[in-house]
Structure formats: C-alpha cells, structure tokens
Write a structure and sequence with these properties.
The complex is a heterodimer of chains A (231) and B (228).
Chain A: H1 2-6, H2 9-64, E1 78-81, E2 93-100, E3 103-116, E4 119-128, E5 132-140, E6 170-171, H3 196-215, H4 217-222
Antiparallel strand pairs in A: 1-2, 2-3, 3-4, 4-5, 5-6
Chain B: H1 2-14, H2 25-31, H3 35-59, H4 68-90, H5 92-98, H6 102-106, H7 109-119, H8 124-154, E1 156-157, E2 171-172, H9 182-185, H10 187-218, H11 220-225
Antiparallel strand pairs in B: 1-2
Helix pairs in contact in B: 1-8, 3-4, 3-7, 3-8, 4-5, 4-7, 7-8, 8-10
The chains are: A alpha+beta (231), B mainly alpha (228).
Chain lengths: 231, 228
C-alpha cells in the first residue's frame, strides 16, 4: 500500500488505462470461451435434438391418428401453412396429409385457441377425408392446474373418458356448426363447472379448425408436398 | 470436517435460501403449484448450482473483482444453456417434464448469490458442497410448499408423477368430491403458505434460542467456573 503512494501521477493514469484494457480483454476472453462452449454443445446436440423433436411430432400425430391408418411418411408429405387467422396461428406451421395406398385419409394440422383462461391453447387435430374430426389433443396450455387443465387428457381426472375425447369422430353432419359449442353457450359439448373458459376456448377453436379444413380439403390434398398453401 | 458441517447446516436451515435469505422467490412461487413440478425444478436447480459453484470456484483466480458479476452471469447463463441442450439431446423424456424449468433457473438469484458469496472465495470441494446443500435447502422447502398447496388446492398429492416415474401414480388425499380451493393454487396462495413456513421457521428458531438462554441462566456456576 505505501509503495503506491510514492508512485508519480502520470504512470498511475496510464496504469488505470492499462488495467481497464486488461479487464476488458479478460471479459472478452471469458465471453469467447463460454460462447465457444455453448456453440460446441449446440453443434454436438443438434442432430439428437432434431431427432427428438421429430419423434415428439410423430408421437403427437399418433395421438390423433393411429399409425396403422396411413402408410406415407408424415415427415415428407407435408405442406407449409402461412400464418392463418382462422386457425389461430400467427406463425407458419406444417400440415401433414395422411394417405393409405395413395388415397387421402386425413389432414393433421395444428390450431390454437387464443382465448384460454391464461393465454394460448395449442391443439393438434386430425380431420378425416370424409370431413369428420377424428380426434384432437391439447399440445400446449397454461390453464390453471387442477381446474382448467382437464382439457389435457393427461391431467383429466376422468381417465376412462377424458373430456377431450367427446369430440372424437364428430362432424358437422352430426353436430351442426352452430351447435359445436359448450352447453353453457347453447351447444352440445360438456364443460366442467367453474372452468368453462378453457372448454369454450378449445371447443370454438376446434369448430373453426374443422370449418377451415373441410372447406379447403380437396385443395389441401392436391397440393404438391412441401409447397406453401395459399388461399 | 466442521467446515463441511457448517456448510450443510447453513444450506439446509440456518442460511436457507428461501426461509432465511428469501432468495429465488420468482421461480419458487411460479412452480410450487404441485409437488412434482416443485421437486422437478428443485432437482434442476441443484444440478445448476453445483455446476456453477464448481466452475466459478475453479476460475476464481482469473476473474477480476471489478467485473466479477458480468462474468458470473455469463458463466451461469452458459452452463444453463449447455445443461438445457444436453438434457434435450440425451434425456429427452425427462426434458419434456423438466425442460420448461431449466431456463427459469437463470432467473433464480440464489445461483448468483451463492456464487458471489461463497464460490468466489472458497475452494472446489467446499463450493460444490455449498451448491449441493443450498440446492437441497431449496428443494425441501419448495417440495413442502408444493405439497401443501397441492393438497389444499386440489386434494391430491404427487399428481403427475407418472410423467417422471411411469410406474407410480398420484394419490387422492382428500375425498374425491373435494371441490378444490383455488386460491391455494393461484399466486396469492403461494405467498400465504410461504409466509406460514417462514413464520414456522422463525418460531422454531426463537424457541431454540429461548431454551438456550434459559439453560445459560440456570447454570451460571458452570459457566463461571469454566474460565477459572
């Protein structure tokens, strides 16, 4: 400490500059090292992450459409949907066309309900070639645990017949469009007392998605793979 | 040896991150809606705290004092990102459950607090142990909080455990027609239960101190004769 006091003024100033440059260089070095580590981890894991995402996607498809129902590759026979307001999607998504022996079986598409109790509810739906909703599942949601989260069959306490399965195999021929609502809104579908908002959001989103898909069914099946769909 | 015992005692009780330091409340309150989520976040936190303490203890000689905070944040964020990627790639099933919690850990100031208060000044082994013990102190409180909120709010316990261990399933603690008590699950419920837990800890500490004081008062001759 006492030696520092003896130092003349100019060297101290240049010393301060040197110290700050050195400190900046150290910070830069740490940034470079840890960015490299992160980039390395990303590159190393990217193929496995992509494989996991694909497996996850196949698993999701299999929840709404049994794999035995189609024989084409869901990763290949897809078309790109631009952001579609009717489906509640504000980002591009992929729509898979399930076929068996070349014959159209079903469209598997994503949709979203923007009006869940706490934000967006993501859905995946399979719409058959004869315009029925084969099944739908909730993929993402933030509904209240224990209250609104029964829209997800994994959280539904009714394990034998979860709420979401009441839509299975219905079409507008059996449930007309204006009755495709929860009972509280004068429709056909049950809701859980005290948690109507979640059920209403899913029901309305599925009606809009079914209307959208049935109106464009032939065009969607006819489009070459990997093409972008335009209205 | 007693150093390690002190580290354990501090982490688990005396300096408990939640009950004594009131740190890491943001993820704590958000995720403790049920037992399984709470434990999942706790496990991920333990892992990151041990790694962060280990890394910074090892690098502490190279980190200038003036820029230590940015460097700590850089290291913690990088570690969390790498853990997130590794989980996603190699433990994908677990990642689907824990995945949303891992980025949350960056927001947990316990990690930065322990790095700054302990790992920057102590050796590798002590720092790793401190990370572990602070993490265990975090997990037992958040698990208790999650369990209490789940039982009061939903009447269940361990709901959703089949997502982590497929052979297990949740149990219905209260009668099946229990209507639920929504406020326990909503954020205010977290504050209520946490407040009660902190009050309980203060009460236990207060009682222990009181007992110690009484013991000292009752035995003045022993205390006085010892130095003589």
């Amino acid at each position: 400490m006492s030696e520092e006091h003896l130092d003349p003024v100019p060297p101290q100033e240049s010393g301060a500059l040197r110290i700050s440059l050195r400190t900046a260089a150290i910070l830069l070095a740490f940034t470079v090292i840890f960015t490299t580590l992160m980039a390395g981890a990303y590159v190393l894991t990217a193929p496995r992450v992509a494989a996991s995402a694909q497996a996850e996607k196949l698993r999701l498809i299999s929840e709404v459409l049994p794999p035995a129902a189609y024989d084409n590759d869901p990763m290949v026979d897809t078309i790109i949907l631009p952001p579609t307001r009717l489906l509640g999607l504000d980002e591009p998504s992929r729509l898979f066309r399930a076929r068996k022996g070349g014959v159209p079986v079903a469209l598997v598409l994503e949709a979203a309900a923007p009006d869940g109790y706490s934000g967006r509810i993501g859905l995946i739906l399979a719409v058959s070639a004869d315009e029925h909703l084969i099944a739908q599942r909730v993929t993402t949601h933030k509904e209240t645990p224990g209250l609104g989260d029964y829209i997800d069959p994994k959280k539904d306490r009714n394990k034998t017949r979860p709420w979401i399965t009441q839509f299975n195999d219905l079409g507008f021929d059996t449930v007309p469009s204006r009755q495709w609502r929860v009972k509280k809104d004068g429709g056909r579908f049950d809701q859980m007392a005290g948690a109507t908002v979640s059920a209403r959001a899913v029901t309305n989103a599925s009606r809009r998605a079914l209307e959208w898909a049935t109106a464009r069914r032939e065009k969607l099946f006819a489009l070459p793979a990997n093409e972008s769909f335009k209205e | 040896m007693s150093v390690y015992r002190d580290i354990a005692r501090n982490g688990l009780w005396k300096q408990n991150a939640i009950l004594a330091q009131l740190l890491g409340l943001c993820p704590l309150l958000a995720v403790s809606t049920n037992f399984v989520s709470a434990v999942s976040l706790g496990l991920a936190t333990i892992l990151v705290m041990m790694l962060a303490n280990l890394a910074i203890s090892a690098l502490r000689a190279f980190i200038p004092y003036e820029i230590r905070i940015p460097v700590f944040i850089l290291i913690i964020a990088a570690l969390v990102t790498i853990v997130d990627l590794l989980f996603n790639a190699f433990l994908h099933d677990l990642y689907l459950v824990l995945g949303i919690f891992i980025p949350l850990i960056v927001t947990n100031c316990i990690v930065l607090a322990r790095v700054e208060a302990f790992a920057a000044k102590n050796g590798l082994r002590a720092s790793t142990l401190d990370g572990l013990m602070m993490g265990v102190g975090f997990i037992w409180v958040i698990a208790l909080l999650g369990a209490v909120r789940e039982i009061i709010g939903q009447g269940t316990l361990f709901a959703g455990i089949e997502m982590i261990v497929p052979s297990l399933s949740g149990i219905q603690v209260l009668p099946a027609d229990y209507p639920g008590f929504l406020i326990a699950i909503l954020p205010p419920g977290a504050f209520f239960v946490l407040g009660l837990l902190i009050a309980g800890r203060n009460w236990l500490d207060h009682r222990a101190n009181e007992r110690l004081r009484l013991q000292r008062q009752q035995m003045p001759p022993v205390a006085e004769s010892a130095p003589a």
